[in-house]
UniProtKB/TrEMBL annotation:
The lineage of its organism: Bacteria, Pseudomonadati, Pseudomonadota, Alphaproteobacteria, Rickettsiales. Belongs to the HPPK family. Residues 4-135 form the 7,8-dihydro-6-hydroxymethylpterin-pyrophosphokinase domain. Coiled coil: none annotated. Pathway: Cofactor biosynthesis; tetrahydrofolate biosynthesis; 2-amino-4-hydroxy-6-hydroxymethyl-7,8-dihydropteridine diphosphate from 7,8-dihydroneopterin triphosphate: step 4/4. The keyword Nucleotide-binding applies. The keyword Nucleotide-binding applies. This is 2-amino-4-hydroxy-6-hydroxymethyldihydropteridine pyrophosphokinase. One of its GO terms (biological process) is tetrahydrofolate biosynthetic process. Its EC number is 2.7.6.3. Catalyzes the transfer of pyrophosphate from adenosine triphosphate (ATP) to 6-hydroxymethyl-7,8-dihydropterin, an enzymatic step in folate biosynthesis pathway. GO terms for molecular function: 2-amino-4-hydroxy-6-hydroxymethyldihydropteridine diphosphokinase activity; ATP binding; kinase activity. It comes from the Bacteria. It comes from Candidatus Phycorickettsia trachydisci. PANTHER family: 2-AMINO-4-HYDROXY-6-HYDROXYMETHYLDIHYDROPTERIDINE PYROPHOSPHOKINASE (PTHR43071).
Length: 165
C-alpha cells in the first residue's frame, strides 16, 4: 500500500529528529521504498500569539504492509523512541510528530484515526512537501490534486526550503 507520512519537529536538532524517524520507520515497521521530500522550515501553528519555535517539516512516501491502526501504533512507538512526551496539549512544541496523510485512497474516520489527514489541505507545510513527491495525487474526499490544493491555499506557514539528505 502506498502511504504518505508527514514529519515535523520543533525541538532539539529538528532535522536530525526527522532523519532518525525515517530510519526507524525502516527498521521498526519494515517499511520499504522510502522517498523523502525536501525539508521545509515553517512557523509553528499554535493557539497563542507567541507561536513557539519554528518547525522543520517533510513528507515521505513509502510502501507499507500494515493496516491503518498497526501503522498508527508504529508511528506512536517511533515518536516515543525519539523522545516525544505526550503533553496532552494540542499544537504544543514537540521533538517529533508523525502523521498518516494518505494510505492509497483509503477513507477512514474514527475517534482514533482519520485518513486522509483531516487538516492537511489547510497546511502548506504538508502540501508543499507532498507536491515534491506526488503533485498529481488526488485527495480521495476533496477530489483535487495536491498541486491544486496547494495552489488555492490562502495562508502560508512555510518560511524556507532545504534539500533532503
Amino acid at each position: 500500500m502506498k502511504v504518505f507520512i508527514g514529519l515535523g519537529s520543533n525541538l532539539g536538532n529538528k532535522r536530525q529528529n526527522c532523519l532518525n524517524a525515517i530510519n526507524l520507520l525502516s527498521s521498526v515497521l519494515s517499511i520499504k521504498q522510502i522517498k523523502c521530500s525536501r525539508f521545509y522550515s515553517s512557523k509553528a501553528l499554535t493557539e497563542n500569539k507567541d507561536g513557539g519555535p519554528d518547525f522543520i517539516n517533510a513528507v515521505i512516501s513509502c510502501d507499507a504492509y500494515q493496516g491503518p491502526y498497526e501503522l498508527l501504533w508504529g508511528l506512536k512507538f517511533i515518536e516515543t523512541q525519539i523522545g516525544r512526551a505526550n503533553s496532552g496539549q494540542r499544537w504544543s512544541p514537540r521533538i517529533i510528530d508523525l502523521d498518516i496523510l494518505f494510505m492509497d485512497d483509503l477513507i477512514l474516520e474514527s475517534d482514533r484515526l482519520t485518513i486522509p489527514h483531516n487538516q492537511m489541505h489547510l497546511r502548506d507545510f504538508v502540501l508543499r512537501p507532498l507536491c515534491d513527491l506526488a503533485p498529481s495525487k488526488k485527495h480521495p474526499i476533496l477530489g483535487l490534486s495536491c498541486f491544486d490544493l496547494n495552489r488555492v491555499l490562502q495562508i502560508s506557514y512555510v518560511t524556507n526550503t532545504m534539500q533532503a539528505e
